[in-house]
Amino acid sequence: MIGGSEGATRGGSAGGGGSGGGTRLRLARQARGFSQQQLAGMAGVSRQAVSAVESGLSDPSLRVALALARALGLTVEELFGPGSPVSPVSARPVAPLGSGGARVTLAPMGDEFVALPLSGASVSRAGFLPAGGLAFGADGPGAGSARGQARTTPRQPPAAEQALRSVSVRPIEPPRPTLVVAGCDPAMPLLETPLGLLDPPVAFTWWSCPSEEALRLADAGLVHAAGAHLRGHSGDYNTGPAGELLRQGSEVIGFCSWREGLVLRPELAGSINGVGDLARRGLRLVNREPGSEARSVLDRELAGLHIDAGRLPGYGTRATGHLQVAAAITAGLADAGVASEPAAIAYGLAFIPLAAERFDLVIPAGLVGSREVQALLKVLSSRWLLDQLASLPGYDPSRCGDHVATLPPAADGRRP
């Protein structure tokens, strides 16, 4: 047991809450024009309690359920009972939604709702993120970022990996507890919402990078968790590579599964059956960085077909993630690439599966007891997160929060 039980977030409930009751609470509150703070004051509960119930992070206790229902002029059964699924609402789309079941952002707009499609470029946020501070002296020898070090130098011995010097940073705002996760799964930012609803809240930041780099950052103590989907020498996923790259030992926790494969321009569907066809037709590829499993999948395919990588136009390119591969193909910069099926679906591209992937979170043993990691373990079992992952076509969240393995430290303090 490493902490963060489901009972901590979903125990002691009035029953029948979950995401359905939370959604009914939110819609009932919005229909009456109340903010979360206003409803909390009327019911005599905390705003965090209202937020947690609405997000599906926790079911309300009987006392809280009675107080919320009374404040909204409803019965507990009407608000939190099993009842029927949440009734649809009429919403005006801001752009064409495509086929039925499309994921959208639903937002109140006066007396109406608007629906914003979550597809193509809008599937992720593009824009400036708030900064926590300004760094000085970062251009001296050995003072580059961890990401730059990992990408511009080959694999280094442990001493070299820890040679990055600290720099002076002037905070823009007071630092606060923040869970730092590295990896390439574009679903990881979904962790931000449930973490922010904890009492007290925990902030979230994601460093997008290949799986191998994420594990190196975790080994250097620069992130709380490394998201990885790397196939080991024996064919296992993540436990072998994590055991090799994390010297201090680690806990491996499940997150989700998907298929990885060839992503193509839609008009190529049916005429391309695999990597071999790309080489024969001279189609342009968008590749991922060294150390990514997507690149390894491509390399294994090429090796099995005895194809020289140099024959593939664009093999030397380095897209920084699954969605970036799909975006490059959509923009006409490439004909194909290797990425996850959810990325292909989000951009309306053709997909040929090549491998079934398991994405896990690898947590260094020395950080398991930290407040940030305990918060992560808590929200991995939240109904809100599971529902969000399940709503993403191509994702399988059935293993989210499961303990996969405990990896011991290397016996001699060095990597095997």
Derived from helix and strand composition plus strand pairing, the structural class reads alpha/beta
Following the backbone from N to C, one meets helices and strands in this order, namely HHHHHHEEEEHHEEHEHEHEHEHHEHEHHE
Mean pLDDT: 82
Q: What would you call the shape? A: globular
Descriptive notes:
- The chain has 416 residues and is an alpha/beta fold.
- Helices cover 32% and strands 19% of the residues.
- It contains 17 helices and 13 strands.
- The protein has helices spanning 7-10, 18-31, 36-43, 47-55, 62-72, 76-80, 146-152, 158-161, 192-196, 211-219, 239-245, 275-281, 293-304, 322-330, 341-346, 371-379, 383-390, and strands at 91-93, 104-109, 112-117, 133-136, 168-171, 178-183, 203-208, 225-228, 250-264, 285-286, 336-340, 350-364, 403-407.
- The strands form three sheets. Strands 6, 7, 8, 9, 10, 11, 12 and 13 form an eight-stranded mixed sheet that branches. The chain has a three-stranded mixed sheet with strand order 1-3-2, with no helix packed on it.
- Strand 6 (178-183), helix 9 (192-196) and strand 7 (203-208) form a beta-alpha-beta unit.
- Residues 4-13 and 138-163 have low confidence and may be disordered.
